[in-house]
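Quick one:
INPUT:
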């Protein structure tokens, strides 16, 4: 069973063709990490999957439902997806607990008691049970990102999309967020993750996809794509990422 299936996805902005025919599936319970240089279309790909961007052509299926079908109930379909961005986008004037309950109540129609029970469970899952009453401004960036993950989990998504969730964080805060993501993967969450964290991709991903200039150049098990890439473009990219101070 595949959780997400992307077929021949294309996206142009004016004359700029950013995605040039992407085919990608993530099976239920699998973790796929997407790597690639800046501007290669990674964020656009995730944004097309949850229809924050309208694809120019191609199809996206989530749990067998075609999100790109013009007749689909887009709000219902989007609820299957949890999205975690580089920026956490928490409501600063609401407590952590309220940040995690608000969409449950407004979008899913859950009652307050149930929403709070679920929020506390998900805050526990990300290691922040003791921060329910705090405001986002009182938390570190890594803690705020873990609240954002709890907020997404509380909506019971069948797939989680992550777009560079740790790249805005101070280095010492990255590990806690990756630990939470590793645990989600172990719990069987289906995840599509854009990341620059090669060690994480190597350890957690079932498959790694290398994108460049709007196409998938290479994909396979992490040991192959990161460990011994076949394509020259992948090799060049990885040399730069793994030795950032090295000058060719
Ligand atoms: N809304 C938009 N309008 C016009 N061009 C856009 C838009 N969004 C993205 N682009 C362009 O599409 C290309 C791919 O952008 P995208 O953000 O998907 O890259 P990325 O792989 O996520 O890069 P990064 O690693 O820097 O986040 C870039 O050239 C970008 O300028
Ligand atoms: Mg991006």
């Amino acid at each position: 069973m595949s959780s997400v299936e992307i077929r021949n996805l294309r996206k142009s902005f004016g004359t700029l063709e950013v995605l040039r025919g992407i085919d990608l599936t993530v099976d239920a319970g699998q973790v796929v990490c997407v790597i690639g240089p800046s501007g290669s279309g990674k964020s656009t790909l995730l944004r097309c999957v949850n229809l924050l961007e309208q694809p120019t052509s191609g199809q996206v299926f989530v749990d067998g439902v075609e999100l790109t079908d013009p007749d689909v109930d887009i709000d219902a379909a989007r609820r299957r997806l949890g999205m975690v961005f580089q920026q956490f986008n928490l409501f600063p004037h609401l407590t952590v607990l309220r940040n995690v309950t608000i969409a449950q109540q407004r979008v899913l129609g859950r009652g307050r008691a149930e929403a709070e029970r679920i929020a506390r469970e998900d805050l526990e899952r990300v290691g922040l049970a003791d921060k329910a009453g705090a405001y986002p401004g009182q938390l570190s960036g890594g803690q705020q990102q873990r609240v954002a993950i709890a907020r997404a989990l509380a909506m019971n998504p069948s797939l989680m999309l992550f777009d560079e969730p740790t790249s805005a964080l101070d280095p010492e805060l990255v590990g806690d967020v990756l630990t939470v993501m590793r645990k989600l993967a172990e719990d069987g969450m289906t995840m599509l993750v854009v990341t620059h964290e090669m060690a994480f991709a190597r350890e957690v991903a079932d498959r790694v996809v290398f994108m460049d200039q709007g196409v998938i150049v290479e994909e396979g098990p992490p040991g192959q794509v990161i460990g011994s890439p076949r394509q020259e473009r992948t090799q060049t990219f990885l040399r730069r990422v793994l030795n950032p101070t090295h000058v060719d």
